[in-house]
Amino acid sequence: MHHLQQLHHHHHQPPMMMKKRERNKGMEKERLQVMDLSGMALDSLPKPSLDLATISKLNLSNNNLQEIPESLTARLLNVEVLDVGSNQLKSLPNSIGCLSKLKVLNVSANFIQFLPKTIENCRALEELNANFNKLSKLPDTVGFELINLKKLSVNSNKLVFLPSSTSHLTSLKVLDARLNCLRELPEDLENLVNLETLNVSQNFHYLETLPYSIGLLLSLLELDLSYNNIKTLPHSIGCLKNLKKLSVEGNPLVCPSMEVVEQGLHVVMEYLHHKMNSSDQRPTKKRWWMMKMVKCGTFDKQGRGGKRGEGYNMLKHQNINGLASPGFMGMLSPLRFFSSPRNSFS
User: Fold this and answer.
1) In what side-by-side order are the strands of the sheet with 222-224?
2) C-alpha to C-alpha distance for 61 and 292, rounded to whole angstroms
3) What residues have CB less than 8 Å from 95, skipping those under 6 apart?
4) 210-251 pLDDT tens trace
5) Which fold does the domain 173-338 belong to in CATH?
6) 3-class SS at 81?
7) Nearest CA-CA partner of 76 in 51, 48, 53, 106
8) Are 63 and 37 in contact (CB under 8 A)?
9) What gap in Å lies between CA 321 and CA 2, rounded to an integer?
10) CA dist., res. 344 & res. 331, Å (int)
């Protein structure tokens, strides 16, 4: 009884104590600093004049830094945004794994060949921009750990494949892997239930096929496959009922033919959907995919998702683009989040 009374007393603190606690929280938030050292031609970092644990946003972009000291990142305990883009970095410190509150990391326009495995400890990370580096691979298990990642931008690198764990990034909304050397995409994409934008354009002669599971990306709005070596689109794409933009220019397409493509997105979708029903693929495999698609709600026998014809009415005002529009390219540009380094933390 005495123990219960203690608990009861704890949950009904006097108003004065509650106000004091709220005031302390407010003061703690105010003490967090924004530090902008961008564009200062720094070859090395000056000795900080303040406690690194008080920094919430640190901008070191557009300098000449060749390394980030291990001791520096290890002490950035409250940093949420870290921008080291446009430097001369060849690697990142292992202590980056200490940044448990990090939400946005920009390492674009450097010479980084690999990301340290410890980056998997940054479990609060929501945006990772590693465009314009020399990455040949990503950490194998990265998808199992960065469960809060919403945007992954790795364009303009030397990636030959994405790790299979990528398919476990269930919060991911944008995946930009254009301008690499991708030979294939992970087979099991169906877990990317929140993915809205997938850009794997300009992998040129390397990328020849796409996994059938691409038809299970329930939230997909924009799919850019332009300038690859794809001859046949998976018929499952016809079941992407929310798709509003499909870019396929620069591929040696046979199925669907360019004559079909030129008639617009709704015609392409109807063509692929029809192909799904009359496909010659092995019955066992076809039945397996059909079961998956019905289960996920992307496919039913009456039409392209939902009531008969509903999908096509919705698609009448949509079109297919051979190349993504300037607006779309701008959205995926590495400059989108860090276009003005001096103002990016304002």
Assistant:
1) 33-36, 55-59, 81-83, 104-106, 127-129, 151-153, 174-176, 197-199, 222-224, 245-247
2) 45
3) 70, 71, 73, 74, 118
4) 999 999 999 999 999 999 999 999 999 999 999 999 999 999
5) 3.80.10
6) strand
7) 53
8) yes
9) 71
10) 16
